[in-house]
Structures are given as C-alpha cells and as structure tokens.
Design brief:
Layout lengths: L1 H68 L1
C-alpha cells in the first residue's frame, strides 16, 4: 500500500514537473515574440520620425537657399 502511495506521488510530481517545463517554454517563447514585436515597433517609429525630420531639414534648407538667391 505504501508503495502505491509513493508511486502515485512520484507520478504526480513528474506531471507537475512536465507541466512546469511546458509552461516555462511557452512563456519564454511568448516573451521573445513580444520583445521582437515591440522592438520592431520602436524601430519603425524611429525610422518614421527620422524620415519626417529629414523632410523638415530639406524644407528648411530649400527655403534658406531660396532666400540666399534673392
């Protein structure tokens, strides 16, 4: 009888460990995916902001050149 209890506890412990391992793997995968997505959003925002700034600088430069020609 004691062997059955010990065996049941061992089986239950193995199930908990496997569940923990699977959950941990899924969590790490989700974190990596989320970080990648977030990084992509930051890069895209930075690129869009840089392009807008470049356009403004070009507009100012063009206006200065026009003013210098007059």
């Amino acid at each position: 009888m004691n062997l059955n209890i010990i065996s049941s506890i061992g089986d239950y412990t193995d199930k908990i460990i496997h569940h923990f391992e699977d959950t941990t793997k899924a969590l790490i995968k989700n974190i990596n995916t989320s970080m990648g997505d977030y990084t992509d959003k930051i890069v895209n925002h930075f690129d869009a902001t840089s392009e807008a700034l470049k356009k403004r600088i070009l507009d100012v430069k063009t206006e200065i050149e026009k003013t210098n020609r007059q």
